[in-house]
Design brief:
There is one protein chain. Helix 3 runs antiparallel to helix 4 and helix 10 crosses helix 14. This protein has 401 residues and is of the alpha+beta class. It has 15 helices and 11 strands. Strand 10 and strand 11 form a beta hairpin. It starts with 5 loop residues before the first helix and ends with a strand. Among the domains are: 80 residues, no CATH class; 100 residues, no CATH class; 84 residues, Toxin ADP-ribosyltransferase, Chain A, domain 1 (Alpha-Beta Complex). The strands form 3 sheets. A 5-stranded mixed β-sheet has the order 4-7-11-10-5, with no helix packed on it.
């Protein structure tokens, strides 16, 4: 069973008119963090073999011993308890996905779900806090709290009729526990002792350079810090912005399914003029490894959007403010310290950029309006400054290496 993609989840929510929380639009960060951590534990090829073996065991109805045998035949050496984690987590994820599909097909008769945790000494307190929460099957709560919610999670969800739901009691919105940040699955693995101790153990017994391995561990921790920072830099989303996000996602993701939701969020803030926090951060000096990671992400995200919606016009024209061009002089080389949206305006100050083909993002290609978004960091030569028909026109030539 294949996992639900971001676009599929988004379209499902649109069809059901579900108002998604802002966190939904940054789900890709968790995937990125998990991928980094797993690839650090062993090579990407090994992990791919492990996951394929787990999927084969699921498809064939095999046992953990069958799974271990497949791994052994692949000459991959990983601790038994780590393989057990991988095996059981993939089994639970597959069953959880199948259970969700069945519940969706039968929701006309059973329109409510109830969270069920195993109340014993091994249950996580955060999972126990969700015990017997009853909500409609289309409630956005289930997008982030449908088990498994972590390694070796044993929780499940039970479908209920309306009569059964009323008997248990439908959980009021103001009584939903705020435990998302405490859940293993919605946070980075290095926040929890089991995986971090495994990483430390692998470092201690490895024949590779210990200093190098410790640096790699620091990279993982830096990515976790960077992901938290990125979320805080985004402007709050209103209904108009969410609708525009959905429109752009429907356009851009089919063109490149690898584009992350955070790339669209970054583009939206730039295009709507809500980029002050992002721009200030990018122009500030890099003070930590996390800063370096986040700045690289932001640059990569914008490049990914531009790759599918690149400007094709050789000359683009847009309005400007006197603050943007006050210091410009003919022959001067200038560099953008903030994104520049080139769009028609009734103002008296105009910027005209020549040699612009391939630079910037064409908003129309993304169904995001009119104009071209020129990213920060590009350099231009001021070719001329002249007044034509009452308008002050600054002509810049893009300097492309």
């Amino acid at each position: 069973m294949q996992p639900v993609t971001f676009l599929e989840a988004l379209r499902y929510a649109q069809q059901r008119k579900i108002l998604l929380p802002d966190e939904f639009y940054s789900l890709d960060l968790k995937t990125r963090q998990m991928a980094t951590t797993v690839s650090f534990l062993s090579s990407l090829e090994q992990i791919e073999t492990v996951i394929k073996a787990a999927n084969k065991a699921i498809a064939d109805g095999g046992t953990f011993k069958d799974f271990q045998k497949l791994i052994k035949e692949s000459d991959i050496i990983l601790p038994k308890h780590y393989l057990d984690n991988v095996f059981r987590t993939n089994i639970q994820s597959a069953y959880g996905h199948g259970r969700w599909q069945q519940q969706q097909r039968n929701k006309a008769k059973r329109p409510y779900l109830m969270y069920s945790a195993i109340n014993d000494s091994r249950v996580r307190p955060s999972h126990l806090a969700l015990y017997r929460i009853v909500l409609p099957i289309d409630h956005p709560f289930w997008l982030t709290h449908y088990p498994p919610l972590g390694y070796r999670c044993r929780c499940t969800v039970i479908a209920l009729t309306e009569k059964q739901a009323l008997k248990y009691g439908i959980t009021p919105e103001d009584q939903l526990p705020e435990v998302a940040e405490a859940l293993d699955w919605s946070s980075h693995p290095l926040q929890f002792g089991e995986l971090e101790s495994l990483v430390d153990k692998k470092i201690s017994v490895s024949s590779l350079d210990k200093e190098y391995l410790l640096e790699q561990k620091q990279v993982i921790q830096a990515e976790w810090t960077a992901s938290k920072k990125l979320t805080s830099l985004f402007a709050p989303m209103d209904d108009k912005t969410r609708d525009l996000f959905n429109t752009i996602a429907d356009t851009v993701i089919p063109l490149n399914p690898q584009i992350r939701p955070s790339a669209i969020r970054t583009f939206l803030d730039y295009a709507q003029g809500n980029d002050s926090a992002l721009t200030t951060y990018l122009n500030a000096s890099t003070a930590s490894l996390a800063d370096d990671v986040l700045k690289r992400w932001l640059t990569t995200d914008m490049a990914a959007i531009q790759a599918v919606a690149s400007n094709t016009a050789s000359t683009v024209v847009g309005g400007a403010t006197i603050q943007q061009v006050a210091a410009y002089q003919v022959g001067q080389t200038v560099q953008l310290s903030a994104p520049l949206l080139m769009a028609e305006t009734a103002g008296d100050i105009v910027i005209q950029i020549e040699n612009a083909k391939g630079l910037g993002i064409d908003l129309e290609k993304l169904n995001a309006g009119q104009g071209v978004l020129i990213p920060l960091g590009l350099s231009f030569e001021v070719v001329s400054i002249e007044t034509i028909k009452g308008k002050l026109i600054y002509t810049l030539k893009a300097l492309v290496s």
